[in-house]
Amino acid sequence: MKRYVFAILVFLTSLCVNAQLQVKELKLSNGMTVWLNEDHSQPKVFGAVVVKAGAKDCPNTGIAHYFEHIMFKGTDRLGTIDYQKEKPWLDSISAQYDLLSQTKNDAERTKIQRHINELSLKAADYAIPNEYNRLISKYGGSGLNAATSYDLTFYYNSFLPQFMEHWCWLNSERLMKPVFRGFQGELENVYEEKNRAADGMGDIQEKVFGAIFKAQPYAYPILGSTESLKNPRLSDMAEFFKKYYVASNMGLILCGDITPDSTLTALLEQTFGRVQTGPAPERVKSPMPEIGEGEVCEVKLPIPLVGAEVLVFKAPTEFEPDANALTLANKLLYNGKAGLLDSLVNEHKVMMSAAMSVGLDDAAGTGVVIIPNLFGKMKTAEKRVMEQVQKVMNGDFSTEQMESLKREMVMEAEKELETISDRSDKLIMLFPKGRTWQDVLDNIESIKRLTKEDVVAAAKKYYDANHITLSKKYGTPNKETLKQPGYKPISPKNLDAKSALAQQLEQIPVKNTDIRTVDFEKDVTTKQLNSHVTLYYKENPMNEIFTFTLRYKDGELHTPALNVLSGYISALGTDSLKKQQLEQAWQQLGTTIEVSSGDMTFSLSLTGLDNQFAPSLQLLAHFLSAAKGDDEALKEAKDADKVDRKSFGKQKDDVLSPALSYIIYGDKSKYLNQLSKKEIKDLKSDALLGFFRELQQYDCELFYCGRQSVENVAMIAQQALPLSQCQKPQADTFREIQQPTEPIVYFYNVPKSRQNYVVSYDGISPLPTVEQRAKLDLWEKYFAGGMSSVLFQNVREFRSLAYSTYGQSVSASLMKYPQEPLAFFTATGTQVDKTMEVITTIDSLLHQMPMKEENLEAARQSVLNNIQNNYPTFRNMGGYVANQRMNGYTKDMYADDARLIPTVSMQDVIQFHQQHIANNHNRVWLIIGDKKLTDLKALARYGKVVELKKEDIIR
């Protein structure tokens, strides 16, 4: 009888899986393509509108990206109290921008810019700031965003299924008649985005793409040139919209908790069927030009000591016939385990080498990365690497090795289809290629049919050809600076107003549904293997792929050497298997292993096919007990640390986390307690292996997701793994959060930064009850959580002071440490010349927070939306429950928010702000940027200025 019941369950599971892997395609009457994917595993829907229009369709102008920003500003019925009165001002602004683009005289340009500012202030009298974002939150949405690439632009967010009708009206409306309001401010925000990209090595990509594509459209940056940013033409943007934003050139993707029936079809026709029709435009193509012999491009990188080259060859795009064959050829070279290039790393002949393909819609390249050992010769390393490439071209690899990697490719492809988010990402990238969902499924089958002849032919075709050599040169790329024009900030008048569309949406009935949170007892099977080992089990409903993690309860906060250990043991073999042999053993099983260390835990994670689960755990057990030290591997770990230390501080992104950690935790910062340069220099292999053996004595957790039964997993784990030696309780990692006792402004100098980071930090007294924490959660969302927040609106929308600004609370576990204090910080990236205005603005908001009922209600709904839309996937469920239990929770911590957030009043939020934030006179500030361009005397108005050095924040 049990056999028949099991057979029925397997059959029902397969039906469910088949449904989740089906994508229904519709064509609306206006020609818009709709893809629907039904999946009820999470209580959310992912919705996206994809447009076949990107940077390659407007080379070097940035228009596609500009327009993406404008699509958040509303329409003639959304984001305005009276469009007929607003329109003349907007038309005048558009005319002035066209005039500005034709004017070269600096004095005249300044005059025009000031006039644009005056007109913008007048137009703002009619605008409802951020109404679109607020309505998305009000009607179940979270994660609202958009992106522009070379080949496409897409707009997306997750939302609760009961708000499907609201979502459809909102997102179709924005495609009908977008209005270019707030352009002056949005232009400034794009400047900031350009600055951020430059500080984050964005200029390097521009140089690389310029070298590869020469005069083709892909050669130019997505954001456009600096000159184009200074001279935008709104009339060109209007033409871009008319040409590319037609229904036949757009796709609508809905994936998740939906029912693709006639009711949904009718709703989509009623809403998205209104979008303007017209022929899909012919698009410019950007194939990779022919590569000449011996082409070289030097690329400046602020990374000292190491040499690096990338040899770039032409490659096929994703769905070309030999694309999978070349991918398999690259896996034979580099798979992170036992590839031919991996062998050079495993045998310490090079520091790093890899082969991989990168593709766009019209062109693709395959690159071979070469990094010699520290102070090694590039020519020697390049010779060794190309010898391995030649072996693949000669077919010098075994059929067994190839078949193992084919299975791995299939496994990777199947894992990319598991969840709502996975399939949504795949569908978004698929649409502009003119492909169908069946092409994705067929592609998996084509991998299975690959032969050795296919692989050799692809390797010869692409690697036996000319290439471009990208050669690393130490230095910092030159950065053009975009200065602020000194605009007057917008003074919004209509923050609580409602547009005509907002009033229409209020009439749509909404079905009340309960917030779905995780049930620790029902959603995960927990099995205590002994008093120190717990198994978290979740069945895999999708495929035959298992994931298994062995997690020890000791981390870098307690044992700093674990940070070095994670990289070191990843480079080791065992007493009977050299490193390359061990990797070949993993490869034969079709299993990958990943080692990682965190603040509180240390993990070894396996991914493979369920029929190899038992031997995979046996091989893991062998490694745990028999890992063999390797002095060459230790030397490489020390060399890597040397490079990291030498590179530190060259970019402001490197500095932010250590500096912020210093402010939050003082001398308990993890960066001040990591191993010192001398301690790492003195490390011996035996000592590191001692840490590894000691680690295995700590309490541990096992996480399994797959098709084996929980009893079978428990039996295999207990038989294979050394679990009896787990006797030590979880290591103590508690750190008290610092409460400032005086106002201080910390400054860290990062020369040549185009932006400054501005961070504020406030201490918060203990909040020992779930009711108080709920007030914090709503206040935090209202003040700093998203596009409708006080912080985002006042810093970015009204004053254009930053592209990115956010805030976040810091706390210890409520259940474990209810009487411990908390903190709140904001972080903003801004042009250097806007630094003081950013500080003044944020300080003012923290002291006197504006209160708007509509925004508070959007924030309230947003907290609830996030609980639903962030509901864990089946593979993440075990870790989700275990992490909360580690912090003392016996039920889902978000269940209290779901219950309490609706009861928190506006007065509660105001009182919270007054009690914990507004009257704080010991606020701390952190500025990271170029000292030469920053007025330190002006900073002294906000506290004693203390200049931090490297040794203050990192050991």
From TrEMBL:
GO MF entry, a single one: metal ion binding
Peptidase M16 C-terminal domain boundaries: 235-408, 686-862
Recorded superkingdom: Bacteria
Pfam family membership, one: Peptidase_M16_C
Residues of the signal peptide: 1-19
Keywords: Signal
Name of the protein in question: Predicted Zn-dependent peptidase
